[in-house]
Design brief:
This protein is an alpha+beta fold. The protein is built from four helices and seven strands; from the N terminus they run βααβββαβαββ.
Length: 155
């Protein structure tokens, strides 16, 4: 199940990133992003982290450089999904939609009306299924965005 990422999760998050990414980041980057935002989650099964999502406010049409501390975020206007990684043996179980709903609710609660991300490894089709649209090319992938609207209250 998804839960807020804790500092104790960082070593496992780092190990997952090494297994699934060729574009890796140091543990300090994960810790900084976690400290910057409530938008960092770990998927835990039997006390083992098997996936994570890192998100935080950022600037529209830009993205943070990989493996670089960003410090303060001046005038953020989008909620940026920095990284999503799930161990291969746990993929295809419908794990992503629930955490995306959490991220959307968090972004809306903080006044953001857009999610953005850089799609890597040819994952544009996956993100399109999740409601994102192509926006622009990035140095190492494709910038994608999704407009957010407040849910209509049910009667």
């Amino acid at each position: 199940m998804w839960r807020p990422m804790t500092q104790k999760d960082i070593p496992q998050v780092y190990q997952i990133s090494l297994q699934v990414h060729s574009l890796y980041e140091d543990p300090e980057i994960f810790e900084e992003r976690r400290a910057l935002s409530k938008g960092c989650y770990s998927y835990v099964l039997d006390e083992k982290v098997v996936g994570y999502l890192i998100s935080h406010p950022y600037r529209r049409d830009t993205y943070p450089p990989l493996n670089t501390l960003i410090g303060e975020i001046p005038d953020p206007d989008t909620w940026y999904i920095h990284d999503l990684a799930i161990l291969p043996e746990f993929r295809g179980r419908g794990m992503v939609r629930p955490v995306l709903e959490e991220v959307k609710a968090l972004a809306l609660a903080q006044g953001f009306r857009e999610l953005s991300l850089v799609s890597v490894y040819g994952s544009e089709k996956f993100w399109t299924k999740m409601g994102f649209r192509l926006a622009n090319q990035a140095n190492y992938g494709t910038l994608m965005q999704q407009k957010l609207t407040k849910p209509v209250p049910s009667k």
